[in-house]
Design brief:
The protein is of the alpha/beta class and 455 residues long. Helices cover 44% and strands 15% of the residues. Helix 6 crosses helix 11. It starts with a helix and ends with a helix. It binds 4'-deoxy-4'-aminopyridoxal-5'-phosphate and glutamine.
Length: 455
């Protein structure tokens, strides 16, 4: 043993010089190779990580990241407390990988009613870690190298990196602004798809289109004609539709949310995505879902079982109870899904007035809990800097949170790199906030305006 050890030691010391040189050479070679996978190239920055940190550091009033600062409904909180403190030890353990049985059952009943078809809880519904994971599963399951995915701009920012990570190519089609008549506030309904432009984006390479109605950030609620145009193109080109409907209950002024999966020819090719984060105001629970035909969902299940496998059981149990209540109260005034938009509409109207009064021209949203406003009249506070690569609205939003204590999100976040600079004089504000929070935002804006107008 000793001899062998000695030998090998001797051998090691004799060969030391050359082996060190060799290993430093090879470690240099290794160092020069990027450590990360190529698919991560260019997607390392994340607006939410950056702006959540800025808001935490500087904001007095945070209307940035989209989450409510008021509590979720008592019936839901109570259901969660019962789930974690009750007799059932099972609710602390794994449940069925593709969704806790009580939750998939009630989601199948609920969405079956909305879509007018019988849904099988085991094959037509899958529970995910928030809508984010449902989206991720769609791109991973269906998009291949060389496939194109049509994304309507402005778009919830994660669609683009998710398409790229799957090896696909995003193809952007803009919502174009029709100038409103003079004297009227802009509305999210002024933004629309040009049917010919939309049609021109479809080709044999198109694998899917991502639809997001109501749309984050504009709050646009797509109308029947627009959805039918999308549906016709999907059917003609054999494309799939990933329909992100996380704000499905947040529609205002009597508008109706239409589900693209209910249009002719669309059920078979659509995955509809939702989230309890938005539905019940519990963004931190991260319980989302995907609804669709088995021929599509079976592939989502493959991604899910080989990645996260399972979502928190107690949160799923509580969301199941919340949906059970909503199923019983469906269409009644006591239903939370009816109450929430009524409350939010008032908050929207307050923020619209507040922004309009100081000259940040609001685009009145038909849905979601976001409101986009034009900051052009405030440009004198933050001069343009032609030498900066950063979009103007991003510099403005950073200046605003640091100097005024008010956090909002630059609209350029929701455009691809090539289009950011042409949409950089808007900010997105979240109005899912307590009255006191919105009043505090109003105070900041009013004081700012007074400061600007005093000589
Ligand atoms: N889609 C859109 C349009 C969103 O705004 C969000 C943020 N809630 C998500 C998906 C992700 O939802 P979740 O928090 O449930 O993952
Ligand atoms: N969907 C939310 C928003 O648009 C939050 C996104 C996030 O935090 N990643 O503000």
């Amino acid at each position: 043993m000793l001899r062998r050890a000695g030998l090998s030691l001797c051998h090691f010391s004799l060969g030391r010089k050359s082996s060190t040189a060799r290993s430093s050479h090879s470690s240099q070679a290794k160092m020069s190779k990027p450590v990360q996978a190529q698919r991560l190239e260019g997607i390392d920055k994340n607006i939410w990580v950056e702006f959540v940190q800025l808001a935490a550091t500087y904001s007095k009033v945070n209307l940035g990241q989209g989450f409510p600062d008021f509590p979720p409904p008592d019936f839901l909180k109570d259901a969660f407390v019962r789930a974690v403190s009750g007799q059932s030890q099972a609710l602390h353990q794994y449940t069925r990988a593709f969704g806790h049985p009580p939750l998939v059952k009630v989601l199948a009943q609920f969405f079956g009613k909305l879509l007018g078809r019988d849904l099988d809880p085991m094959t037509n519904v899958m529970v995910t870690v928030g809508a984010y994971q449902a989206l991720f599963c769609c791109f991973q399951a269906f998009v291949e190298e060389g496939d194109e995915v049509i994304i309507i701009e402005p778009f919830f920012d994660c669609y683009e990196p998710m398409v790229r990570m799957a090896g696909g190519t995003p193809v952007f089609v803009p919502l174009r602004l029709k100038a409103p008549e003079a004297g009227r506030l802009m509305s999210s309904a002024d933004w629309g798809l040009d049917p010919a432009e939309l049609a021109s984006k479809f080709s044999e390479r198109t694998k899917a289109i991502v639809l997001n109605s109501p749309n984050n950030p504009l709050g646009k609620v797509f109308g029947r004609r627009e959805l039918e145009a999308v549906a016709r193109l999907c059917v003609r080109h054999g494309a799939l539709c990933f329909s992100d409907e996380v704000y499905e209950w947040l529609v205002y002024d009597g508008r109706q949310h239409l589900r693209v999966a209910s249009l002719p020819g669309m059920w078979e090719r659509t995955v509809t995505i939702g989230s309890s984060g938005k539905t019940f105001n519990v963004t931190g629970w991260k319980v989302g879902w995907a609804v669709g035909p088995d021929r599509l969902l079976r592939h989502l299940r493959t991604v899910h079982q080989n990645s996260v496998y399972h979502c928190a059981t107690a949160a799923q149990e509580a969301v199941a109870q919340g949906f059970q209540r909503e199923l019983e109260l469906y269409g009644k005034p006591e239903s939370y899904f009816m109450q929430l938009p009524r409350e939010l509409q008032q908050k929207r109207d307050y923020l619209v007035q507040s922004l309009a009064a100081v000259g940040m021209k609001p685009i009145v949203p038909e849905g979601t809990y976001f409101l986009v406003a034009d900051i052009s009249e405030f440009k004198s506070d933050v001069p343009e800097d032609p030498s900066s690569d950063e979009p103007y609205d991003s510099r403005f939003a950073k200046w605003m949170v640091k100097n005024k204590g008010l956090a909002a999100i630059p609209l350029s976040t929701f455009f691809c790199n090539a289009h950011k600079s042409s949409h950089s004089h808007f900010l997105r504000f979240c109005f899912a906030k307590e009255e006191g929070t919105l009043k505090a935002a109003n105070d900041i804006l009013q004081a700012w305006r007074r400061e600007k107008s005093s000589p």
